[in-house]
């Protein structure tokens, strides 16, 4: 009972859970796409409160987690150069490369700085014209508009000492790759509300129709997630496969037209590799030819730097929903947040980090039903 009492509205949570239980007449496997939703699910015990017919599978929705090792090594190489100020959000500093991370580079004298906005890095470039300033642009569609604006502003201010190491990935191609896999068990998706607040919901309609899966756009609060699960289960039980917006307070069908226009001007779609998954066609963004001079890979000639993913880390299976974090033999022993084997244990949105921080023993059925 205490788990339900921790919800903002325990009565509504009970009602949503009761409706899910009443609707689910057979087993359904749902995948939440966003790592923020994964943390909400594990932190609030939602996976343990659901009826046994409903299984939640954690998807590849953590941008830090899916950044490939090649990109991490390129970041480390650039950050190690004495003429470079390397700016990044804090969650990238502990992501392990082959044998070091950005904290290690900083400890050896590299000028690695944590910033809170890509525009902070633009300001550094303006204030220090004799240094090369690089911003590590990582993320899904959510963070891309601000990164695009940073490049746009750098050009407008004539800052030839600013560049961006781009590792942007897109959600719809990842969903398609998962559904096209012959081993996929996913019956429906909870789509990330913040991504759809930028891009809208139109990209999901062809996927729902082609693969006959419901896709419900949800937020990140526990009640948002429960409502998304309820709507997804109802669609499955009724034989429907539609895109449904359960987050209308933040998401519209068209998304944010101004942000999308900025993205279209600065970025173009390209093939991208995802850590632990591999190459997904047309699943990322790169700078257009007009802004190519701000591409850090080109400026520092690191585009050909490649390394092999460590075979012992099973993060790829976690990211594809094939393995729960606590089913990995390294989880919580060899692999911990202090000694991570992969990015899924480092990132604040990683599934492995969520399980390590929040995982509880199974809640007895009598309490779940209470």
Write the layout of secondary structure elements.
Blueprint: H1 2-5, H2 10-23, E1 28-32, H3 35-43, H4 46-49, E2 54-58, H5 63-66, H6 69-79, E3 84-88, H7 102-107, E4 111-114, H8 118-127, E5 132-139, H9 144-156, E6 162-169, H10 171-180, E7 188-192, H11 193-199, H12 205-211, E8 215-218, H13 222-237, E9 243-245, H14 257-266, E10 267-274, E11 278-287, H15 296-299, H16 315-319, H17 343-346, H18 351-358, H19 365-369
Parallel strand pairs: 1-2, 1-7, 3-4, 3-5, 5-6, 7-8, 8-9
Antiparallel strand pairs: 6-11, 10-11
Structure description:
- With 370 residues, this protein is α/β, with parallel strands linked by helices.
- It has 3 domains: 2-56 and 180-245, HypD, alpha/beta domain 1 (Rossmann fold, 3-Layer(aba) Sandwich); 64-170 and 255-299, Rossmann fold; 315-358, no CATH class.
- The protein contains 19 helices and 11 strands.
- The protein has helices at 2-5, 10-23, 35-43, 46-49, 63-66, 69-79, 102-107, 118-127, 144-156, 171-180, 193-199, 205-211, 222-237, 257-266, 296-299, 315-319, 343-346, 351-358, 365-369, and strands at residues 28-32, 54-58, 84-88, 111-114, 132-139, 162-169, 188-192, 215-218, 243-245, 267-274, 278-287.
- Strands 4-3-5-6-11-10 form a 6-stranded mixed beta sheet, with helices on both faces. It has a 5-stranded parallel beta sheet with strand order 2-1-7-8-9.
- Strand 10 and strand 11 form a beta hairpin.
- Helix 3 (35-43) packs parallel to helix 18 (351-358) and helix 9 (144-156) crosses helix 14.
- The model is unreliable at 360-370 (pLDDT under 50).
């Amino acid at each position: 009972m205490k788990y339900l009492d921790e919800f903002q509205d325990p009565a509504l949570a009970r009602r949503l859970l009761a409706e899910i239980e009443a609707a689910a007449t057979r087993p359904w496997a749902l995948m939440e796409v966003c790592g923020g939703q994964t943390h909400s699910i594990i932190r609030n015990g939602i996976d343990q409160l659901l009826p046994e017919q409903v299984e939640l599978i954690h998807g590849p929705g953590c941008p830090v987690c899916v950044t490939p090792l090649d990109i991490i090594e390129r970041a480390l190489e650039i950050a190690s150069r004495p003429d470079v100020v390397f700016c990044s959000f804090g969650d990238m500093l502990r992501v392990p490369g082959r044998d070091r991370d950005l904290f290690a580079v900083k400890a050896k004298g590299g000028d690695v700085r944590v910033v809170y906005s890509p525009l902070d890095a633009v300001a550094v470039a303006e204030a220090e014209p004799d240094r090369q300033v690089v911003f590590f642009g990582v993320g899904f569609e959510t963070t891309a508009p601000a990164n695009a604006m940073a490049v746009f502003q750098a050009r407008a201010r004539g800052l030839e000492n600013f560049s961006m190491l781009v590792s942007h990935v897109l959600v719809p191609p990842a969903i398609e790759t998962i559904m096209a896999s012959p081993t996929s068990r996913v019956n429906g998706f909870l789509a990330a509300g913040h991504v759809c607040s930028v891009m809208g919901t139109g990209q999901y309609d062809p996927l729902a129709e082609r693969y006959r899966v419901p896709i419900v756009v949800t937020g990140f609060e526990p009640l948002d997630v429960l409502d998304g699960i309820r709507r997804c289960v109802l669609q499955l039980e009724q034989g429907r496969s539609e895109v449904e917006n359960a987050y209308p307070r933040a998401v519209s069908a068209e998304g944010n037209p101004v942000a999308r226009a900025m993205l279209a001007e600065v970025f173009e779609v390209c093939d991208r590799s995802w850590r632990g998954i591999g190459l997904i066609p047309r699943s990322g963004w790169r700078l257009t030819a007009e802004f190519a001079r701000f591409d850090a890979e080109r400026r520092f000639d690191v585009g050909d730097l490649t390394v092999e993913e460590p075979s012992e880390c099973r993060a790829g299976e976690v990211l594809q929903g094939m393995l729960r974090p606590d089913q990995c033999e390294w989880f919580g022993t060899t692999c911990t947040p202090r000694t991570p084997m992969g990015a899924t244990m480092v990132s604040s949105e990683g599934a492995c980090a969520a399980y390590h921080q929040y995982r509880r023993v199974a809640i007895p059925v009598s309490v779940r039903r209470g």
